Amino acid sequence: MKVGFIGLGAMGSAMASNLLKAGHEVTVWNRSPAATEPLASLGAKVAKSADRAVLGDVVFSMLANDQAVRDVFLTDGLLDAMDKGMVHVNHATISVALAREIAAEHAQRGLEYVAAPVFGRPDAAAAGRLNILAAGKPAVVARVHPLLEAMGSRVWPLGNAPERANVVKIAGNFMICAAIESMAEASALARAHGVGAADFLEVMTGSLFAAPAYQGYAKLIAEQRYSPAGFALPLGYKDIGLALSAADATRVPLPLAGLLRDNLLEALSSGVEDVDWAILAQVAARRAHLDERGL
Amino acid sequence: MKVGFIGLGAMGSAMASNLLKAGHEVTVWNRSPAATEPLASLGAKVAKSADRAVLGDVVFSMLANDQAVRDVFLTDGLLDAMDKGMVHVNHATISVALAREIAAEHAQRGLEYVAAPVFGRPDAAAAGRLNILAAGKPAVVARVHPLLEAMGSRVWPLGNAPERANVVKIAGNFMICAAIESMAEASALARAHGVGAADFLEVMTGSLFAAPAYQGYAKLIAEQRYSPAGFALPLGYKDIGLALSAADATRVPLPLAGLLRDNLLEALSSGVEDVDWAILAQVAARRAHLDERGL
Amino acid sequence: MKVGFIGLGAMGSAMASNLLKAGHEVTVWNRSPAATEPLASLGAKVAKSADRAVLGDVVFSMLANDQAVRDVFLTDGLLDAMDKGMVHVNHATISVALAREIAAEHAQRGLEYVAAPVFGRPDAAAAGRLNILAAGKPAVVARVHPLLEAMGSRVWPLGNAPERANVVKIAGNFMICAAIESMAEASALARAHGVGAADFLEVMTGSLFAAPAYQGYAKLIAEQRYSPAGFALPLGYKDIGLALSAADATRVPLPLAGLLRDNLLEALSSGVEDVDWAILAQVAARRAHLDERGL
Amino acid sequence: MKVGFIGLGAMGSAMASNLLKAGHEVTVWNRSPAATEPLASLGAKVAKSADRAVLGDVVFSMLANDQAVRDVFLTDGLLDAMDKGMVHVNHATISVALAREIAAEHAQRGLEYVAAPVFGRPDAAAAGRLNILAAGKPAVVARVHPLLEAMGSRVWPLGNAPERANVVKIAGNFMICAAIESMAEASALARAHGVGAADFLEVMTGSLFAAPAYQGYAKLIAEQRYSPAGFALPLGYKDIGLALSAADATRVPLPLAGLLRDNLLEALSSGVEDVDWAILAQVAARRAHLDERGL
After folding, report:
1. CATH class of the region D166-287
2. The CATH number of the domain covering residues in B2-160
3. Which is catalytic among the residues A48, A84, A137, A169?
4. Contacts C–D by Cβ distance under 8 A
5. ipTM of the predicted structure?
6. For chain B, which residues score pLDDT lower than 70?
7. What is the secondary structure of B244-267 as a DSSP string?
8. Which GO terms are recorded in the biological process aspect for this UniProt protein (chains A, B, C, D) (predicted)?
């Protein structure tokens, strides 16, 4: 199929390359053009401007946050450049509020819209093993399903209203962050009692917590290796902010999310940015002064 | 082998029955004798008094908490009734402080001691699929290893000092409770945005959180079925208290554990006791008044 | 002096009436005209439109929140209607971000700007006993000082940059809310041990906490009388949000503010709005199920 | 009157000296005898052993914690040395549990017991300006009232059951700690926005928070002067522990107390002990990396 792909960060590049490998004709665009080169070498057409990437049947986008989605599709007018009936599959992790707004903007223009945020880090994207959440009109989701399957190991249908996929993504990222924090604090406790974090986490992730969300981060915590970032601290902080905003909008107290917000903020206030959000383990250890105490 | 088994609650009974099935000669004792009957029918010898159950090579015990362990082994003098060189395998989830104290009491009497707390609920115990943490002298742990394998799918060696196994157990239970709380809050958020808890948790436990610690509790939360208790609220509250005590002893701030303590306490203050600690999901929903709001 | 007054809620009306009593010529405007009547009967001139209220030397405004300030002064263009050199004294509790933005908008138009948020509830405003924070050019603050003294018992100069007054106001309201929460939890604890909230709070506010911020709220908590609102729950929730936003902007973890946010949200989610934020005491009591337990 | 005084730390010494100044005949005892010297020079009789200090009409005690009270009065048998009908006025801040137990021990021996914990730091004790909480039989409280008035500016009667005074003391100390934390976080926020802690706290403690509990600690926070300790960090940590224990006993969630516990623990884990618990302000500033950022 002839498709466009907007946004070629680590995630977007990996996803677009899987579309290429599956035999689709992919036209890519990225604000900073350097990112298009590796995809060009895999056979992608490179669009000179964003509107040249929205000429096929479907356009995928993987942008960083609300602001980027708003800039490209609304402010810069990309939606206006799309042909009626064209499908836009939006992979970004965006707020529930923007999810609703942008769905309405598509509807007004006779465009089809699928919210399809993903779970998985760049290595999972490269391997085509993403978990893809998909919400939108069933017929439209069905149409793009084969394309999604080229990028993910599983597609989770989440109903008609696009924002449903975004809520699940936001709530899910909150759960991941909670998992990191629980490993962070539990490992600090274990260390203080003479059990190394690596030993402790090996038991946990080999038994009750033998799940992807734990195993990857446990490795980073055990090795105290927070850089380069798999999932960068500022993005994690943004995502907890999305959970708190969604909670605010529907008046749902989330004490655990509030706690995570503060701990991420403590890490951020030190000035580091290009670190993984697993740095929460360093925050927990620092609070207990474990290094100073030789524990 | 000829062994004793002290403490026949849901967990102990299941574990003792697996020792019987593995062909060992098991003498059982329980403070309330009714619990011995099913085991007798499986071939166990029933001891009239606790000291008659500590006559073989090894005695296992699975008691409810610090108080019960202290009562049986120290106050009532069971340690004094044991022959020098005998091995005591203590499966209870006890405090780090008691773990140290009771190890010393064994050493003083020339008794061997293995701390062997377990991960797994009664159904896992019945199926012989427990994860067993084991700390103590390597030679002694090796001696009881075949017996432990009759009860668990995996034995995790944790070094010489017995309390190391208890710390891992305590920190692990804290992680389980954190997992429940994160599902509780995230599900409340999803519900408030129109995504049912069952739908939401199906995605999460089918993807990133495809691990035993999540799947069992997710089912309870999705079905709002907290009774009968798989792991009872008061026990969970006790275990978070053990984590906070261990943190106090080594001066490790655990903000997440403090939050869990309060939420468990909120559930307890309503007067319910025989409910699973997954009732944390009800606390989160009640705080958001989801039922009153028809969400 | 000839002055204008924009915004005649409970606070603004009381403040404007004190300007009248001090002999100033006051022209008032309020979006909903009914609120102007009592002031007209005290001698105020009533402006038909907002721009007719900004014709004197100084205009005061007391609007509810960022949105109202933005609507009136920026979107509806009131700043453009003001004469160069005129002074605007903004009493609203607004975000630090808007404080900076609106100060710049004044400067661009050659208008003088004083940020002057106040501490005190409507009864203090009526009695002219407000504490008024004032930040802006010293000469300009000096010019309006006699007017401020007509409304407050004390004016606190806070330097040149207007947002400094807003930060102090936001941080101060956070402290008030923390004071309420500490009375709420401490009273719940006292009640559970048989000491009535009234008895307990009488001791505390008669000794260590003999301060206005405590005495007023203690009365509400002791009498469980949360309506009518002296300071309404949604405003309090907004103000804690301002503290968290200011903390976000400068990366300052505020765990206590996060806790307050959740507890206010719990109160709000029940659907009540026209209650005092001292309702935090009801939240604390409900969590402990004190009423159900007859405590 | 002829009275005894047990326990001559900073508080006890100041209190005993006021009894002397009021003309009473005071026999003092302290575990470490050096502390008796200044009082001897004021005219106190020095008892060689504790039982020699309990020979008059009333004995006062001001010991550090549960353990010290238990050791002196129960384990070392001082209660058994007291004459039937003698009154013991216990000023220590002890747990509700011990408060109940020790009241019963007095009753069994025909001794009178008044729980009389105090609010006030050593300087207030020296000046006779303590707030004294008093619970016990009204006739007995009346008998010791003139003596209490020699030590405090106000005596607060709290009813018959002695533990009532202890609950109020524990809940009150929790409120003080919450006040410190709120100043700590609010000051960090103000600093991050360019308003010095001293300027900010001057406004707050000169207006809404013009109360002893704030003014003393505000001074320490503004000057970042945490040593010597007016109220030492480990004692503060102990007292928050007493609040959490009392909450545990009656199942009252206290999220704010949990937060304080963790922050005090963070301060303690750094190894400092002889600092005031106002050091919470340093914890808040460190979390935000204010010094590193030059804020």
Report:
1. mainly alpha
2. 3.40.50.720
3. A169
4. 206
5. 0.96
6. none
7. HHHHHHHT---HHHHHHHHHHHHH
8. organic acid catabolic process
